[in-house]
Automatic annotation (TrEMBL):
GO terms for molecular function: hydroxymethylbilane synthase activity. Its cofactor is dipyrromethane. The modification S-(dipyrrolylmethanemethyl)cysteine is found at C240. It comes from Corallococcus sicarius. The porphobilinogen subunits are added to the dipyrromethane group. One of its GO terms (cellular component) is cytoplasm. This is Porphobilinogen deaminase. HAMAP family: Porphobil_deam (MF_00260). CDD domains: PBP2_EcHMBS_like (cd13646).
């Protein structure tokens, strides 16, 4: 192979991620020419509306996947967190590199940690998951919708004089913005989104040459966690963005998967966890989803879908 084209969004984080994969490929393949195909997606065009209202997950990836399918690019780099549980026919998750910090980070211009937030403090996030978790713990907090790329959200946090905002530690670290973090929140306190901190490297399944090129970028521990998390997601995903979290770790060949489904206002939360060997990662993810569904997650999701329909009508 002489040249490979990587499709990416144009946000600073997406470009960092695509360039990172480009540099991994160049380092491992002297003489390989790597170029970026920069694209604007639907998700970038509707930055003012809440993510859940404009269609949620998948919005940032559809056009990029189409470029792959059309042969306008050979590789696509995404945040795995932004991807739906099912890929279009013909595309595969060719490699997942070693996961970056999967945790949420609290960024407070005033220097607050979550525990020290004054009663009624306003906290920015547009993630239903983060809203659910924050409110379940602190019903007094006011959640303020915050969208846009990472830098925009930090700027809005200051402009709106919010007490702080919740963002993914991974994005902040990749962009060299970790000095904004006042607290890295433990996974047990703010369960991360499925795929948070993981880069998804996608290509056409039939493209054996590109698959071989990408294979060395794979991290098996990360893959084990991703398989469990995405099986969990697939069982729960009703087509729209829902307040759910799913996070797995792999230690000594054992998967530990934790999951959560709740109301965005935190008034109901169903949590659970499973453990088992890596080869059974998918089964574990499905089993946890089924367990949560039987313990009330099904009602929460149905209720939530009805409200979404009503708000769209
Ligand atoms: N929702 C957008 C998004 N998609 C991936 C990341 C962060 C990087 C990652 O999780 O890999 C972010 C920003 C954030 O949630 O703060």
């Amino acid at each position: 192979m002489k040249a490979v084209r990587i499709a990416t969004r144009q946000s600073p984080l997406a470009l960092w991620q695509a360039r990172h994969v480009a540099s991994l490929l160049t380092a491992g393949n002297p003489g390989l020419e790597v170029s970026l195909v920069e694209m604007t997606t639907e998700g970038d065009r509707f930055l003012s509306a809440p993510l859940s209202a404009v269609g949620g997950k998948g919005l940032f990836v559809k056009e990029i996947e189409q470029a792959l399918l059309d042969g306008r690019a050979d590789v696509a780099v995404h945040s795995l967190k932004d991807m739906t549980s099912v890929f279009p026919d013909g595309l595969i998750l060719a490699a997942v590199p070693t996961r970056e910090d999967p945790r949420d980070a609290f960024c407070s211009p005033e220097g607050y940690t979550l525990a020290r937030l004054p009663p009624g403090a306003r906290v920015g996030t547009s993630s239903l998951r983060r809203s659910c978790i924050l409110r379940a713990h602190r019903p007094d907090l006011e959640i303020v919708s915050l969208r846009g790329n990472v830098q925009t959200r930090l700027q809005k946090t200051r402009d709106l004089k919010l007490a702080g905002a919740m963002l993914a530690a991974a994005g902040l670290k990749r962009l060299g913005l970790e000095h904004h973090i006042t607290e890295i929140v433990p996974v047990a306190d703010s369960l991360p989104a499925v795929g948070q901190g993981v880069l998804a490297i996608q290509c056409r399944g039939e493209d054996a040459e590109v698959r071989a090129l990408l294979a060395p970028l794979e991290d098996l521990t990360t893959r084990g966690a991703v398989r469990a998390e995405r099986a969990f997601l697939a069982k729960l995903e009703g087509g729209c963005t829902v307040p759910m979290a799913g996070h797995a770790t792999v230690v000594d060949g054992q998967v530990h998967l934790r999951g959560l489904v709740g109301r965005p206002d935190g008034t109901r939360v169903v949590r659970g966890e499973v453990r088992g060997p890596v080869p059974e990662a998918e089964r574990l993810g499905e089993a946890l989803a089924e367990e949560l569904l039987s313990r009330g997650a099904g009602d929460i999701l149905r209720d939530f879908a009805r409200r979404e329909d009503a708000s769209r009508a």
